[in-house]
Amino acid sequence: MGNGQRKMHKNLGTEANSASNHNHANKDNDQSKELKENSTKAEGPPKHPNLLTEEALGGKHPLEIFKAWMMEAFQTGEPDPFFMNLATATSCGKPSVRLVALGDSDERGLYFATVDGTQKVKEIKENPRAAVCFYWSKLQRTIRIEGIVEECENNEEPFKRWPKPFQVGMRLAGAQGKPVEDWESAEKKLQEEMAKFGDQEVPQPEHVTTYVIIPTSVQFMQLKQTSLSDRFIFTKKDPADEGSWSFDRVYP
Amino acid sequence: MGNGQRKMHKNLGTEANSASNHNHANKDNDQSKELKENSTKAEGPPKHPNLLTEEALGGKHPLEIFKAWMMEAFQTGEPDPFFMNLATATSCGKPSVRLVALGDSDERGLYFATVDGTQKVKEIKENPRAAVCFYWSKLQRTIRIEGIVEECENNEEPFKRWPKPFQVGMRLAGAQGKPVEDWESAEKKLQEEMAKFGDQEVPQPEHVTTYVIIPTSVQFMQLKQTSLSDRFIFTKKDPADEGSWSFDRVYP
């Protein structure tokens, strides 16, 4: 896609950031305002032009299409549009998958925050590759992404976007995935911490780390009931070159 | 859990089978009738007793709890309760994940049908392990399963439960995941095949295979907004011994 592609990609940063600037805590941020305005302005249900044509896709960066689909998923009232299934694997190739909230996204990739010592962190540390899958039922759309994972220092955005009880839970959850020996004390401690923070911002604890998934392939699929579903695969030929994305329409 | 557990598990077969006997094509089978009766009988929304207590779980086989949660997901009108995210990995440990419909389940495991030659089949053939994740938004519940994968001969149930256009699509989709050279002809061929079968049953083609995921661990999580979420992990200590399941309550 050459230089044109690279230029477009360079401009994607702030827009993609704004598109994924959903707020799990429903704070009245720019993004939710923008979405609210869009949905009250619209007459009837929002229009969903078929983005999956070769004409529409040619020259677009896959994360730009991702951004557009995420916006539409919000606008159609999908209950948890930012929930993604994150797959990792041990270095021996034993896969695992769990639900994770997308914390942020930009031209580099998809960001999420998680607690150190969990299964996914152990697997990422020994094998820094991941795959994610989004599914939006109302739109009958799914996106699959594969890529490499890197740790991000000084990026607290994903943590900030969690609802407060989850933030406090993550503060206490140095033991996430470990057996609970005394449930009542653990629950009591959570309630005490919740009360302690009140309306204050909860600081990201030491044991929470942000990771970014840098895509090497992105697949879009628009499911159809009575005709062949649309499916496009974008592949980055050279992981170091954002200009090396190519795409194919494939059998669903 | 010893013999008591094994006996309970032995009896699980037909029940679990009936619980997962959802029909993607909305045929009027026993299961959908049963669910309809349940939902019309119920006054107000269905009750969801908290199954996640040590008392309720002790001695239960995890696939029995899976069955109960799947039933509840159907009863609460979750749009696609049988959709699961299936993760596989290459033998080098590169993970991938996609949306797959659960085709059937019984005391052995979870069944799905897929087209030979796809990425997941290639990965399963070189590395017969998989992980799946279900998420039911209305119930705020998620289930994660890890296990080994085996091919099932002469099991056409998962294929039979696909809606007809998907069955016909799978017949044509020997090329699934391969580039479409002539979209119009492909679409025309699908419509011709659809017309050809009319009301007839679509036979499972040679290039579609059924696989079973035999669990070695099963995790249940009931998300909660203002208190610690419930999370229980079942682990099979000896893959060959159904009596060797143990469980732990863990930090969410």
The largest chain-to-chain contact, stated as pair and per-chain residue counts, equals: A-B, 58 and 58 residues
Shape of chain A: globular
What number of structural domains do the residues of chain A give? Answer: 1
What are the segments of chain A in which pLDDT stays under 50 over at least 5 consecutive residues? 1-49
Class of chain A, according to the CATH hierarchy?
A: Mainly Beta
Oligomer: homodimer
Mean pLDDT across all amino acids of chain A: 80
Tally of helical segments of chain A: 8
Counting helices, strands and paired strands, the structural category of chain A is: alpha+beta
Give the helix level of chain A as a range of percent. Answer: 25-40%
Instruction: Spell out the helices and strands of chain A N to C.
Output: HHHHEEEEHEEHHHEEE
What is the count of β-strands of chain A?
A: 9
Radius of gyration of chain A: 19 Å
CATH topology type of chain A = Pnp Oxidase, Chain A
Q: What percent of residues of chain A are in strands? A: 25-35%
CATH superfamily of chain A: Electron Transport, Fmn-binding Protein, Chain A
Detail the topology: elements first, then pairings:
2 copies of one chain form a homodimer.
Chain A: H1 2-19, H2 30-41, H3 54-57, H4 62-75, E1 83-89, E2 95-101, E3 104-105, E4 110-115, H5 119-126, E5 129-136, E6 141-152, H6 157-160, H7 164-172, H8 183-197, E7 208-222, E8 230-236, E9 245-249
Antiparallel strand pairs in A: 1-2, 1-5, 3-4, 4-7, 5-6, 6-7, 7-8, 8-9
Helix pairs in contact in A: 1-4, 7-8
